[in-house]
Specification:
heterodimer, A: Four Helix Bundle (Hemerythrin (Met), subunit A), Rossmann fold, 8-stranded mixed sheet, B: Four Helix Bundle (Hemerythrin (Met), subunit A), 8 strands, 56% helix
């Protein structure tokens, strides 16, 4: 099972990987690690959305390492670069003990609802009793979208009408989850831009309800991040984290050509792990994020 | 936040240039490097950044800058001009056809905001051009996407053509077009499913829809927060479909929106509209010069107003308005207002969004958090009665308040004077002839 998932990730990431690998290899081709090399490397890293600052930081670290060790071969240098990146993305996650409440947050259009369907499907397959709460009462047909997914996946859904108070939906869902001895309750929330103070206050309120009513539950807040997002993602992560304490990130849409480099910067700066990676539109297109494998695959 | 990032950086660069009488090549080089980094941080594609900074340097090193009296200003102008022309120069408007329906096709990645934008565009053009719009739901993949468009149509009172349980978007498109002809609609907007530009099968499907409906506009919808990928996405959609324009969504966020630059630069297609909020009326024309100014820190009144507005919810402002009308606005409300403004971020950062508000002058205006604290202390040192009727605060009372709040009598005087002024100002603003739509904006603006 694990191997096949690993294979799936491999296949799905081939596009991402090839780009990155090819570029890095091109950069290293000549084998002389001079200023031009470092500049090219910096550029390659920036093109992954890693950010200029992080790219410079990594390049500088690599430069020091090369000087220290008198490294000369492409293989050595590649190894160092891999180590640096693996180090950056290795962060311990929060244990997923049940019963658990997952609140899923993020800006508009990152794929929260689809991710919830994938999570529900995954936990159900693990034999867990899963329930979803349609906490996006704002966007047109958001509830219908989650409802359709809950039918396909075969999990229970707690919902209300459009325009209802999302906190009340979550409140009801927690009550239902307790009564039905649910293992994992996954709460959808409306997408919101992190600079909308009122909407963030609303989220804070939902979170308060979860913390108050979810006594005895392991509370795990996931932020969904679109891999195509640029540097703004760091702001997103910071503001959402200030608001509801994020314990994990789901990086979606990694099946495109985007490299999601900003995720590396986020993990490095905020020490919040990426838990899952979304690689498609089907329920099973969600895989666990393994830092070491992830970096390995980038360079394989 | 945008105003602490790119603008700050540019302003740092330019304030350095301003201080010097003349520019040398070295200055320009340093400034170019800063500009390069700032643009990268703004998610402008690396290749675009490289070419942009090269152009800037070439132009700046020449006489233009060196011989001008204020090199800093000249440099700002060059950067601004270049940015504006990269963003599309003059505003390019869509051509509309009378007689046969204007056929729009919305395309883009998943989650860019195509469905919502389709509704927004239909609503806007119905209002502006008096069109009779029809929305056609061709997204057969995402669960409830059709339902979403139907609900939007219902909310906007715009007709929607949809077929449930049909998995053939090309067929739906054809029948939708036919319906538009029969119903004499003069604007038809086709919403398509989000897809990755590398998904060959789904891109082929778009090409087929295009062939079937012969759209007058193919609008690529792009999330303003998109990173380096924006170039690849735009290029590929443009290569296969020959898009006619771009709609940039979610610009109400605090992203610096470098994608705008990358896309227009690489495709040569202009941005027609921008999405600026969750409401169905939140769509605006794109102004290249405004975007450039926003990037360059020359202020953006719109952002300022938006920010101020979003901070104050309808209900509070109504209550406030009533108080002002009835002249019941007292120091308690004044304190509330100050606190509300404070929660928007520092007053100075807000003021910097106003064009022409120059940084030096702002330094003398103390609107920092410390001042708010002092004001708060002074007001809290007053009795309830005093707060309600500031007129009763005589010299003796002023002394007591100053003592109680650890300030000087002069501070108390200044506060009371400021309060009276705002009250006067508010009275004018609450005049129904002056206040737009009867809704208060910000009493201290």
């Amino acid at each position: 099972m694990e191997l096949s998932l690993y294979e799936r990730m491999r296949n799905k990431l081939i596009k991402t990987k090839d780009n990155f690998k090819e570029k890095i290899e091109n950069v290293m081709y000549l084998g002389n690690f001079d200023d031009d090399f470092f500049e090219e490397l910096e550029e390659t890293l920036i093109l992954t959305d890693l950010g200029a600052e992080s790219a410079m930081k990594i390049t500088e670290q690599l430069r020091k390492k090369i000087i220290e060790t008198h490294a000369k071969t492409k293989e050595e240098v590649m190894g160092f670069l891999k180590d640096i990146l693996t180090d950056m993305v290795s962060v311990e996650g929060k244990p997923q003990t049940t019963p658990m409440i997952m609140m899923v947050v993020g800006v508009n259009g990152v794929g929260k609802t689809t991710t919830i369907a994938k999570l529900a499907s995954r936990y159900k397959k693990e034999g867990k009793k899963v329930m979803v709460a349609a906490g996006d009462t704002f966007r047109a047909a958001a509830t219908e979208q989650l409802e359709e997914w809950s039918k396909r996946v075969g999990v229970e859904i707690i919902k209300s009408t459009k325009g209802a108070d999302p906190s009340s939906v979550v409140f009801d869902a927690i009550g239902a989850a307790k009564a039905r001895k649910t293992d994992i309750l996954i709460c959808d929330t409306a997408g919101r831009l992190h600079n909308k103070v009122n909407l963030m206050k609303e989220l804070e309120k939902i979170s308060r309800i979860v913390n108050r009513e979810g006594d005895g539950f392991n509370i795990h807040n996931l932020m969904v991040l679109d891999a195509t997002t640029g540097q703004n993602a760091l702001n997103q992560a910071k503001v959402f984290h200030d608001c509801v304490e994020i314990s994990g990130i789901v990086l979606t849409k990694l099946d495109g050509t985007s490299k999601g480099g900003i995720a590396i910067s986020i993990i490095d700066e905020m020490q919040i792990p990426i838990e899952y990676v979304g690689i498609g539109e089907k329920q099973e297109d969600l895989i666990e994020f393994d830092p070491k494998k992830f970096v390995d695959l980038l360079f394989e | 936040m945008i105003f602490e990032g790119l603008n700050e950086k540019f302003q740092n660069i330019f304030s350095q240039l301003k201080r010097k009488g003349k520019l040398n090549e070295k200055d320009i080089q340093a400034a170019s490097r800063e500009i390069k980094l700032a643009l990268l941080e703004a998610d402008v594609n690396f290749k675009v950044v490289k070419q942009f900074t090269k152009k800037i340097s070439e132009r700046a090193v020449g006489q233009e800058v060196l011989n001008s009296l204020t090199p800093g200003q000249q440099f700002i102008k060059i950067v601004n001009d270049e940015l504006t022309s990269l963003l599309g120069g003059e505003i390019e408007r869509m051509d509309f056809i009378n007689g046969r329906p204007n056929v729009f096709m919305m395309v883009g990645l998943q989650g860019a905001g195509k469905t919502t934008t389709a509704g927004k565009v239909a609503n806007l053009l119905r209002k502006e051009k008096k069109f009779k719009p029809l929305l056609v739901a061709c997204d057969v993949y995402r669960p409830a996407a059709i339902k979403q468009l139907e609900i939007l149509g219902e909310e906007l009172n715009i007709d929607v053509y949809s077929e449930h349980d049909v998995k053939d978007p090309v067929g739906i498109a054809k029948r939708g077009l036919k319906k538009s002809e029969e119903g004499h609609y003069d604007l038809v907007i086709f919403d398509t499913a989000g897809r990755l530009q590398i998904d060959e099968a789904l891109m082929e499907e778009l090409v087929n829809i295009k062939k079937a409906i012969l759209p007058t506009e193919i609008l690529l919808t792009v999330d303003a927060m998109t990173g380096q990928e924006s170039v690849n996405v735009a290029n590929e959609f443009n290569r296969l479909l020959e898009i006619t324009g771009v709609i940039l969504t979610k610009l109400d966020g605090d992203t610096r929106g470098g994608a705008a630059l990358s896309i227009t630069y690489t495709t040569g297609k202009s941005i027609k509209y921008i999405g600026t909020g969750e409401k169905l009326t939140d769509i605006e024309l794109f102004y290249p010069d405004r975007m450039a100014s926003r990037i360059l820190g020359m202020g953006d009144v719109l952002s300022f107003i938006d920010k101020a507005q979003s901070m104050m919810d309808e209900e509070t402002s109504k209550k406030l308005e009533e108080k002002i009308r009835n002249q019941e606005f007292d120091l308690n409300d004044f304190l509330d207002q100050i606190k509300q403004i404070e929660s928007m971020g520092s007053m100075n950062s807000l003021l910097e969004m106003i064009p022409g508000a120059n940084k030096k002058a702002l330094k003398n205006v103390d609107l920092s958090g410390a001042d708010t604290k002092r004001t708060e202390a002074i007001i809290l040192s007053m009795t309830k009665e005093e707060r309600h009727k500031p007129g009763m605060i005589n010299a003796g009372r002023r002394k007591r308040i100053a003592f109680g709040s650890g300030t000087k009598v002069a501070d108390v005087n200044r506060l009371l004077k400021g309060f009276e002024q705002s009250k006067k100002m508010m009275k004018q603003m609450s005049n129904p002839n002056l206040a737009k739509k009867g809704r208060m904006k910000l009493p201290f603006m």
